[in-house]
Specification:
By secondary structure, the protein is an alpha/beta fold. The chain contains 22 helices and eleven strands. The strands form four sheets. A five-stranded parallel beta sheet has the order 2-5-8-1-9, with helices on both faces. The chain has a two-stranded antiparallel ribbon with strand order 3-4. Strands 6-7 form a two-stranded antiparallel ribbon. Helix 1 packs across helix 3. The longest helix is centred in the first third of the chain and has 56 residues.
Amino acid sequence: MIRSSRVFFQLTRTFRNSRVRFASAGKGSEDAPNETEDFVIIEEVTNKKRHGWRKRYSGMFDSISTGNSNNSHSNHSANHHSTTAVNSETIVDAEVEGEVSSKTEKLEEQEAEEKQEMVEEEEMNLAASLTPECIVAALDKHIVNQKEGKAAVAVALRNRWRRRQLSAHLQAEIHPMNILMIGPTGSGKTEIARRLARLSQAPFVKVEATRYTEVGIYGANTGDMVKDLLEESIRIETEKAKQRVAEQAERVAKQTVLSSLLKAHPDADRDELKAQIESGEAGCAECEVSVETPAAASLPLGLVGVPGQNHAPDLNNLSTIASSLGSIFGNSGAKTKRERFKGTVKECIQRLQAAESEKMIDQESLKRKAVRAVEQTGIIFLDEIDKLAVPPAHERSGSWHDKGTGVQKELLGLIEGSVVSTPHGPVNTEHILFVASGAFHTCKPNDLLPELQGRLPIRVKLTQLLKDDFVKILTETENNLISQQIELLKTEGVNLTVTRCAVDRIAELAADLNSSVENIGARRLNTIIAKVMADISFFAPSRQKTAQEKGQEHTELVDREYVDKQMSSTITHVDLSKFVL
């Protein structure tokens, strides 16, 4: 009898706590949404099922209270029966709320999976639509000439898609055909690789070969380029994941802000306030919310310059260092902290949405996808590789010869295929596409190590740009330098007009300067246009203000005469330099 009474009171206490918990969840806390529209699924619970729960639990409590009443005082029996009626309803409500919560979570997970499948399908369709002809046509919008180089990278990219359509056994056997671009500076080598990465939406990183050293020597080793590529892949995957959960995170953020505003203004109408938040009318109102942010991690003293390290840690990436230290020392403490944020409703929603997005994203799954993307579709553009070439024997300098040869040896295994350890896990470089480039002014591609030459089987020679090419760059490419200057001055209210004669003169000067001074390719156009536009850009605000006071529009004209006037000092200096011994 005493034991059954204790069981009854224990059940009563448990179910009362459950009711309080679900009641608080229903009303909504400061940091949790309480939108009733997310719980529409409660209507799926039929009256028959509800009646079955009530009958089952009421019978259980009736039996317990009946057994107790035979050996207890009459007033205790009455209290048991009254408590039984309340707690039977509590159990029903608790189970209904529990089923609602579980079904809501399942629906959200199903929605996220469907979005993920749609994104993957879109990526596959995009890759399938990138035929070599389409890739070259897209590159033509930004890069003039260099048909051979465009075709080579287009075929290399298409072969990557073809490989993914094969069986796993054949995929492991097919390796990318790495490319070596040879051409003068400013001919479009880097731009081809950069535009190619944007088209394919693949992880891409551009690195300078001269920044690396041999393993065992202080400095960055060649494996760091793979780490940089993985960080870029993580950034891409994070942006994709945030887009997938953006709507859900925004909904949660708005509900949190709504709860905070209702607490600060109890007399406000909930529906009206919610409508103002949705429409943006309440965007300037003051609000204070609690935001969950990553906990700040401190670095142990003496981390930098630890003996035995090949290079100093990257202090610009403290989160990576902190996470690595946490795994080393077994730090299982809290990774996040809560802080109060006060600002406008719009600012609070943005801050909460960012925090909710971070919580909704599975970081481990994201890192696995990033690693897979690097291994299957990653592109590393290795610029200035000619600086590693060993010059002829009579021109060798001991220190640079040793460094260039050592870095080339390190690149051999990396390009051929090896496993690089990163803070986010090992990365296999076997199927990463390497695109190397160099001007090779003072050396030849054959001066590279023979083994490295064999790992860059496709050689593409880019031609020098001439006057006609410069004219096309200034007139036919998208977002060319002339159109950029026009749009920049529009922000000042100035209308800029550049005649075709001026464009021809700029192209002519660029070609002449490249041939007489130093050939820097299309980069010469930046130098000339900056010189031509110097006075116009400097006086644009004051001249526009003067014209506005007179009720006129301010227009600037750039013609051939204006170009010659602005470039006169440079042209005279170049002409005189021909006669200086």
